[in-house]
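Milestone 3.1: sequence recovery, worked example.
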């Protein structure tokens, strides 16, 4: 219960969080794919649809055919209004395939009304206050000597690392997700698409 109270307080405080700035990626990003070098103001294709920077996170996610499970989970967790708010938010957005890789019983259990609080924890573990671009992430990794820790809205930390031309995000259980599309800018933040569901402790 104390974690949920902290979660609600942190969510309410997000509107006051300052943006970290959306920056173009520079030469330190090396051989990253073009899909990871979109700049603020440009739309990116995700799940067969253009992610328009004039729309908020929920509006764009609803148009991606690769994120129907995530959208359903956000609705079930009653987080639509939060993620449609001013933010800004940085969201590591798992694809349908990422959810499908979980045991089916896990997903079914999380989607039950009785487990809404747990679902909220899982989803908000993918959300970090502020607009953190891929360049910002790499700067944090460089400053941290190879890793960077991000405190999520849920309260636990994510660890970010660079592996060659890829950005990897690791949860508290050691599960590693790969960023497949970065810098999908929204009116209220930025999305980085990931290929795994991350789990808090």
């Amino acid at each position: 219960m104390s974690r949920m109270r902290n979660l609600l307080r942190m969510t309410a405080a997000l509107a006051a969080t300052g943006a970290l700035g959306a920056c173009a990626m520079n030469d330190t990003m090396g051989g990253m794919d073009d899909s990871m070098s979109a700049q603020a103001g440009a739309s990116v294709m995700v799940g067969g649809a253009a992610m328009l920077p004039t729309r908020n996170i929920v509006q764009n996610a609803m148009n991606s055919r690769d994120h129907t499970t995530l959208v359903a989970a956000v609705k079930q967790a009653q987080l639509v209004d939060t993620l449609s708010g001013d933010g800004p938010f940085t969201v590591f957005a798992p694809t349908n395939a990422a959810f499908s890789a979980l045991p089916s019983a896990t997903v079914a259990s999380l989607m039950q009304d009785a487990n809404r609080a747990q679902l909220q924890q899982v989803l908000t573990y993918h959300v970090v206050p502020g607009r953190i671009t891929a360049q910002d992430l790499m700067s944090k990794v460089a400053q941290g000597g190879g890793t960077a820790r991000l405190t999520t809205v849920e309260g636990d930390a994510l660890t970010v690392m660079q592996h060659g031309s890829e950005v990897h995000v690791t949860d508290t259980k050691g599960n590693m997700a790969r960023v497949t599309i970065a810098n999908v800018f929204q009116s209220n933040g930025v999305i980085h698409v990931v290929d795994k569901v991350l789990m808090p402790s």
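Confidence is low (pLDDT under 50) at residues 1-39. The domain at 2-194 is CATH 2.30.180.10 (FAS1 domain).
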